[in-house]
Specification:
152 residues; 0% strand; elongated
């Protein structure tokens, strides 16, 4: 149900659904840690969608606790810090994502955004170009790259 609510952009209902799943998973005799990690990840994603970044970070931490190699959780945790304007804190999570999944173009794009926001434009373009090399169809990378060009 949480996925359906997410598609409808009914984030509050999605959050409620994922909280129920997590509660039920934790009480289960046969704890499925990968399922629990995925549920915490999805809950964190919903928190990001409604700009509850600290809550999102806590949920991504829980996802990582149950699945230490869940690269998307590291990336989205970095996005939470990026959205808070805490660029120094965001960068290591994008680096960790890339170490786990070197083909994650979103992590390169997000690193480009960090470098752009910290006026390290050469590094920003380097990362945007890596993202484009991995997925030349993602308009977001071109958008953020154009904003960076505007500021140089």
């Amino acid at each position: 149900m949480g996925h359906c609510y997410d598609i409808k952009k009914d984030y509050e209902s999605a959050i409620s659904s994922f909280k129920i799943v997590i509660q039920n998973d934790k009480m289960s005799d046969n704890l499925d840690t990968s399922h629990l990690a995925e549920s915490f990840y999805k809950l964190g994603s919903q928190m990001n969608a409604i700009s509850q970044f600290d809550k999102a970070i806590n949920n991504f931490d829980s996802a990582i606790k149950y699945a230490p190699n869940l690269s998307v959780a590291y990336n989205d945790k970095g996005v939470s810090f990026l959205n808070k304007g805490d660029y120094k804190e965001a960068l290591p999570f994008f680096e960790k994502t890339i170490s786990l999944d070197p083909k994650c173009e979103k992590a390169y794009m997000n690193m480009g955004c960090v470098y752009s926001n910290t006026k390290q434009y050469e590094k920003a373009f380097e990362n945007f170009n890596k993202a484009i090399k991995l997925d030349s169809t993602d308009f977001q990378t071109y958008y953020f790259m154009s904003i960076t060009y505007k500021h140089t």
